[in-house]
C-alpha cells in the first residue's frame, strides 16, 4: 500500500497497514488538494500521447521525484526496511497543465521489493511498466499449487499436451531409462502491460539425456542480441512499427526421431509402473529447439521468406511495396518493415499455421522493456535489474558511481575460496544478460566472469559492487535515436597486458549506426602481445570482423552501406601497419591479422582513422576508469536515464 503522511509530505510504501475506518485522516487546518501531488499510478484515460518516453518539454514540467534513503526506524512486517518516496509540491501552473487524474492505489499481495522511478515515462507506458514489474512468478511446484491461477494454468498445459498427442502412457521397456521434468511459470502480458494469461510450462530435464541414445543433432540458431538492437535501430530511423508475436507451445510442433521416456510431471497421476513415451518435442529436450526451428523455417520458406546469411534466425521477404523482416528467438518473434498490409497477412498466416498470440506493438521482449517516443526507442531491463538486486541479498543503501574500483587488478588466488560457488555463478550469468542493454557494466562483468571456476570472496565482492552500481543506475537504458543517419562508425582499443594472471591483453570495441550503439564487446585476446601495437592491431582485426558481419546483416535487410566504415584507433603504429605493404620482423608473427585488416582496408570496407585517446570510446570496454572519465564516456554511448 502507498500511505501518504500529510504532515511530512511523504508517501510510504509498506505491506503492513492498519486501517482506521472511523477517522478522517486529514488536518482541517492544513488543507491540501489531491492534484497537488504527482503519484506513480495515474489514470491515462484522458491522455492522448503516443510516446512512451515523455519529451523533454514535458519532463521539465513534471514534478521532481526523489528516492530517499530507506527509513530504518520503521521496518516492514517482513523485517526489511520501508522505502520512502518524497514528492515535492508542484506549482499551480503545472497542476493546471497536468491532464492525468489520480486513481486508487494499486493493491497487490506481492508488491515489488525495490523502487524504480517511472516519472519520466508517459502515463500509458508507466502503467505498462508497473503492471509488468508487479507480477510475481513462483519458483517451484509447491509454491504454485497454493494459487488457483497457477493450478488452472498447469491443468491447461496438461490438456494442451494431451490434445496434441505429445505422449503415450506405456510401461518402461527393459533397458530403457526415464528423464525427469519440472514446471516453469511465466506471467504473459499484453502490449499495455495488462495480464494476458498465467503460463505454466512443462520442461523436461534434458541434462539427463545421453548422446546417441536420447538425442543426436541439437543445434538450433536463435537471434543474436546485436541483430535485435540493429533491427530496432533501423526501425527507429525508418519509422517502422514493430510488432511482437508469441507461439504457444512452440516445441510441441516438432516431432522426435529418438525414443525418449519421461517420468510423470507433478500434478499428473499415472498408474503404477507407467511412464510417458514422448512422440513430440518438449521444452528442455536437447533436440527440441532444432525440431521446432526446422519446422518453422520450412513454413517461412513456403511463404516466400528467406533466411539471412548473417543471422539464420532472421527471415526477410521482399514485396512489391517494400520489405518485411521477422526475427525469431525460440518461440518469441518480432516483425517489422514498411509493408503494413504485408505484415498483417504474415501475422494471419502464422496464426493459421501455429497457435499464436498477437501481443501488439513491441513493449516487452525477452526481459527487455521497450519504450517508444518520436525521438526513438529506449531499451531497458529495470525489472530484471530489480530481481538481481533482490536475489543478491543487498539490503543496505550503499551505492557506487562506477561498476569497478579504480586500479584494482584481481588475481585467481585473491581472497578465500567460496564454499558454494553457485550464487556467484548465478549472479555473473544474470549480470551478463543485463549487459544486453547496459554497456556500462560490460567490462566489469567480463572481468568477474573469468573467475567462475574457483571464485573467492574478493571476486564475490567485485560482483556485488556491480550490483550496487546497478542499484544506483537502475533506470538507465540504451537509447536508439530516430534522427540518426545510416552511417556506421566503430571505435577499437586494447589494454596491453592488462590481465595480471597471464598478461593477455583485452580487446574492446563499439559500433554505432548513426548515433545508436548497436554492438560492443570486451574480449581477452588468445595470445600474449609483445607490444602495445600488436595488441591494438589484434583488437583492430576483431573489430573489422564485426564490421564486416554487421554490413552483411544490414545488406540482408536491404540497407547497403557502400561507403567505407570509419574505424577509429588511437595507436598510430597500428594504423601505419594497416596501410603499409611491407612486412618485417616485428609484424610477421601477426601476419594473418595484418593480411585480413589490410584486405578490408584496400577493398574500402573500413577506413582507419586516428582518434586522440581522450575521445577513444573503446577505452570504456578495456579497463576500469575514474568516475569523471567513466561518466564522460558513458554520455557518448547513448546510455541515458529517461
Automatic annotation (TrEMBL):
Residues 56-66, 92-103 have a biased composition (Polar residues). Residues 164-403 form the Reverse transcriptase Ty1/copia-type domain. This is Reverse transcriptase Ty1/copia-type domain-containing protein. Coiled coil: none annotated. It comes from the Eukaryota. It comes from Nymphaea colorata. InterPro entries: DNA/RNA_pol_sf, RVT_2. PANTHER family: GAG-POL-RELATED RETROTRANSPOSON (PTHR11439), OS10G0432200 PROTEIN (PTHR11439:SF461). Residues 50-116 are annotated as: Disordered.
Amino acid at each position: 500500500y502507498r500511505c501518504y503522511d500529510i504532515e511530512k509530505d511523504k508517501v510510504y510504501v509498506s505491506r503492513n497497514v492498519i486501517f482506521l475506518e472511523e477517522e478522517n485522516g486529514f488536518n482541517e487546518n492544513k488543507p491540501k488538494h489531491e492534484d497537488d501531488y504527482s503519484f506513480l499510478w495515474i489514470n491515462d484515460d484522458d491522455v492522448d500521447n503516443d510516446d512512451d518516453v515523455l519529451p523533454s518539454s514535458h519532463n521539465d514540467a513534471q514534478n521532481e521525484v526523489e528516492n530517499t534513503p530507506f527509513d530504518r526506524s520503521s521496518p516492514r512486517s517482513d523485517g526489511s526496511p520501508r522505502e520512502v518516496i518524497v514528492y515535492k509540491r508542484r506549482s499551480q501552473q503545472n497542476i493546471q497543465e497536468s491532464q492525468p487524474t489520480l486513481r486508487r492505489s494499486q493493491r497487490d499481495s506481492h508488491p515489488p521489493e525495490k523502487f524504480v522511478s517511472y516519472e519520466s515515462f508517459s502515463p500509458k507506458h508507466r502503467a505498462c511498466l508497473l503492471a509488468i514489474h508487479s507480477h510475481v512468478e513462483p519458483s517451484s511446484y509447491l509454491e504454485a499449487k497454493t494459487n488457483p491461477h497457477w493450478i488452472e494454468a498447469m491443468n491447461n498445459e496438461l490438456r494442451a499436451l494431451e490434445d496434441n498427442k505429445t505422449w503415450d502412457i506405456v510401461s518402461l521397456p527393459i533397458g530403457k531409462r526415464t528423464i525427469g521434468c519440472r514446471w516453469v511459470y511465466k506471467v504473459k502480458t499484453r502490449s499495455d502491460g495488462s495480464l494476458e494469461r498465467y503460463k505454466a510450462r512443462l520442461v523436461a530435464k534434458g541434462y539427463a539425456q545421453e548422446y546417441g541414445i536420447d538425442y543426436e543433432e541439437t543445434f538450433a540458431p536463435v537471434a543474436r542480441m546485436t541483430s535485435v538492437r540493429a533491427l530496432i535501430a533501423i526501425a527507429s530511423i525508418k519509422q517502422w512499427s514493430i510488432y511482437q508475436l508469441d507461439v504457444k507451445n512452440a516445441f510441441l510442433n516438432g516431432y522426435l526421431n529418438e525414443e525418449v521416456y519421461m517420468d510423470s510431471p507433478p500434478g499428473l497421476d499415472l498408474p503404477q509402473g507407467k511412464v510417458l513415451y514422448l512422440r513430440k518435442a518438449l521444452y528442455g529436450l536437447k533436440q527440441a529447439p532444432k525440431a521446432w526451428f526446422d519446422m518453422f523455417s520450412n513454413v517461412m520458406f513456403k511463404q516466400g521468406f528467406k533466411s539471412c546469411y548473417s543471422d539464420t534466425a532472421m527471415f526477410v521477404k521482399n514485396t512489391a511495396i517494400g520489405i518485411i523482416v521477422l526475427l525469431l528467438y525460440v518461440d518469441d518473434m518480432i516483425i517489422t518493415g514498411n509493408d503494413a498490409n504485408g505484415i498483417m497477412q504474415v501475422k494471419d498466416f502464422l496464426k493459421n499455421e501455429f497457435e499464436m498470440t498477437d501481443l501488439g506493438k513491441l513493449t516487452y521482449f525477452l526481459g527487455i522493456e521497450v519504450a517508444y517516443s518520436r525521438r526513438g526507442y529506449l531499451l531497458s531491463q529495470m525489472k530484471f535489474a530489480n530481481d538481481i538486486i533482490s536475489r543478491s541479498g543487498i539490503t543496505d543503501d550503499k551505492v557506487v558511481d562506477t561498476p569497478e574500483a579504480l586500479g584494482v587488478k584481481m588475481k585467481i588466488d585473491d581472497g578465500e575460496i567460496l564454499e558454494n560457488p553457485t550464487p556467484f555463478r548465478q549472479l555473473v550469468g544474470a549480470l551478463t544478460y543485463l549487459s544486453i542493454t547496459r554497456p556500462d557494466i560490460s567490462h566489469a562483468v567480463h572481468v568477474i566472469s573469468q573467475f567462475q571456476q574457483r571464485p573467492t570472496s574478493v571476486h564475490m565482492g567485485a560482483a556485488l559492487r556491480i550490483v550496487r552500481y546497478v542499484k544506483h543506475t537502475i533506470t538507465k537504458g540504451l537509447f536508439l535515436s530516430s534522427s540518426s543517419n545510416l552511417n556506421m562508425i566503430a571505435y577499437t582499443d586494447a589494454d596491453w597486458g592488462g590481465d595480471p594472471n597471464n598478461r593477455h591483453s583485452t580487446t574492446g570495441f563499439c559500433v554505432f549506426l548513426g548515433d545508436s550503439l548497436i554492438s560492443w564487446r570486451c574480449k581477452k585476446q588468445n595470445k600474449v602481445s609483445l607490444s602495445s601495437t600488436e595488441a591494438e592491431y589484434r583488437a583492430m582485426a576483431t573489430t573489422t570482423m564485426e564490421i564486416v558481419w554487421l554490413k552483411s546483416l544490414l545488406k540482408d535487410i536491404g540497407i547497403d552501406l557502400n561507403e567505407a566504415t570509419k574505424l577509429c584507433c588511437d595507436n598510430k603504429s597500428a594504423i601505419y601497419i594497416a596501410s603499409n605493404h611491407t612486412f618485417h620482423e616485428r609484424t610477421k608473427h601477426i601476419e594473418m591479422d595484418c593480411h585480413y585488416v589490410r584486405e578490408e582496408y584496400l577493398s574500402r570496407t573500413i577506413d582507419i582513422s586516428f582518434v586522440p585517446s581522450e575521445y577513444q570510446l573503446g577505452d570504456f570496454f578495456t579497463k576500469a576508469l575514474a568516475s569523471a572519465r567513466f561518466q564522460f564516456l558513458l554520455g557518448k554511448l547513448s546510455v541515458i536515464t529517461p
